[in-house]
Amino acid sequence: MTLRYIARLIAGLSVLTCKTWAMVDVNMEDRVDVSLKGQAEISCIYTLMEPANMIVWFTKSPGRDQSRRRIYYYDNQSEIIDEGSEYAGRINFTHSHEPQNARGSALLIIDNVQLSDQKEYICTVHDVSTDSGEGHTRLQIFNSPSLPVIEGIHMGISVTAEEPSKVAHCKVDDGYPRPNITWYKDRFPLQQSDDEVKISESETTKANSLFTVESDLYIKAQRTDKDALFYCEVKYFVPGGVRMTESKEINIIVHYPTTEVTVYVNPPDRLIKEGDTVEIRCEGNGNPQPVLTFTHKGEELSADNEMLLLENVKRSDSGTFVCQSNDFDAGIDTEDSVNITVHYLDQIVVTPEETVLNQGEDLTLTCNALSSLPTLTAWYKDGTQLVERHVLELHNASYDTAGLYKCEVTVPSLPELQQQKSVQISVRGKPKIIEEITVGPVNKADRSVNLTCNAEGYPFPTITWTLSDQRTGQPVPVPEAENQKTDTGILSMISVRAMSELTAKCSAANELGTEDVSRKIEAFARVTTTTTQATSTKGGGSGVVIAVIIICLLLIAILGSVLYFLYKKGKLPCGRSGKQDFTKEKASKDDIVMEMKSGKSEEAVLLQGVNGDKKSPTE
């Protein structure tokens, strides 16, 4: 360096040391904000008519050590970026001058900004004389923290606790500057209060100088807090402003004593009948649920704490069921009750039962069933409703009166309750055959038919069958009959094979008399034979062909006989050649020739003449 340059440098340093600035006016921003690992640009604007003779950049760390550290030097002859500083490889400097505006500028650029870069930056500008000026800028570093993490306390807190209980923990990491945590309950911020709310915070500076902030929330819980939503809010600084982020909302478990219980039937508002399964539930308004007991008519029942299950209930289960809670921690006992009615419908009682009437008599039937609900009674016969009341009156009994009567009792408000009972009414009288003997269709397997006879009467008649041949009058064996009781009599059936015309007789008898009926039965076998032949002819085409052949042969034989007869009478002339036309007049009267042809050849047969002469085949 020249002596002149050294002298100027010493003069400049003396000026800086004495902090007396003259003609050079330097302007810098008070603070420059930048995000961590971003790029910072610190500008230094000065006023000079001519370019600066020397520009020097310094840094000054916060705290007690107020010494300056040079990071850059520039003059007309050299430019130095101090080696070995923490900025090596990360800083760049530029400078320019505008003579027309009498101003110049110097720019410091810092790449990949680190937290250690948060310092005060000093720009010193010297002119060609001894005048100089300097400006100061503070670089502020920011780093946005992670999202807040909230965690609630898994075990519940009691409203009876004397001191505030911890309900949640909130944590946020890697913030710079230090972020702030605020607690909220249902969108309302919580403030520190010794009696109701307590907030405990801690912060940790990590090795990378970023902050971790944790906060614990304590409250004196109330019953209404069981439905409250808690969350934490984090506010943090960013370049040029403040931002906010929220954690998820959580609900806390609050323990409080039971002050009342409610007991009810599930499902409610339904009618209960014998045989049903009934569920009775009991719930307390405390948390957790207290110990619950059920009693009925002074007897304690076995239950699954909150639920009492009654299976196959009876009418004796009707009454009041009491649910009682025992909260041993709070020392509070409460109870509630519910009344249930088990409805029923007893078996039907019909009077009289199994009655036998004489013809012309009257009868009154009554049907009753005991029930806990209003009932509806109806009488039926053969599926038809007769009356809709519990009394049925029968007048002037006849065979039509006899039969099975059914009484049905229902509960309109509870249709599942229903009872039925039948009673048999018989009318005394001699047998009466309802209709003539009926004949069923022919059984194709054995060509038999069923004969049926239906007779009324009481006592039930005995039916006897007889069969006889219509031509000879001789009896025919009777097969075993199948007899079936009906409401009013007997239905009898036999199966017969009528090979000839028969007469069937059905006799019904009881102690009061006898009645019979007869019917002629066609000979089904004859019809069957004819049908079979017709079917055989219709289906056999080969038999027709054979019959035609036989007829043709007979016609040929007759024709041959006629020709022979004419020949004997001399009425038929015949030639002597191999073939002769019967119409030729030159034919000889003494010879007759018959020509028989086969499919492939012809053969002439010479018949003996009248005179007995024999001719050769050539003649």
UniProtKB/TrEMBL annotation:
UniProt entry keywords in alphabetical sequence: Disulfide bond, Glycoprotein, Immunoglobulin domain, Membrane, Repeat, Signal, Transmembrane, Transmembrane helix
Pfam families according to UniProt: C2-set_2, Ig_2, Ig_3, V-set
Transmembrane segments: 544-567
Localization per record: Membrane
Main location: membrane
Signal peptide bounds: 1-22
UniProt entry tagged with the keyword Protein transport: no
GO terms, molecular function: laminin receptor activity
Membrane topology (UniProt): Single-pass type I membrane protein
Domain of life per record: Eukaryota
GO cellular component: plasma membrane
Gene3D superfamilies: Immunoglobulins
Ranges of residues in domain Ig-like: 37-140, 145-251, 257-339, 346-424, 431-522
Entry protein name: Ig-like domain-containing protein
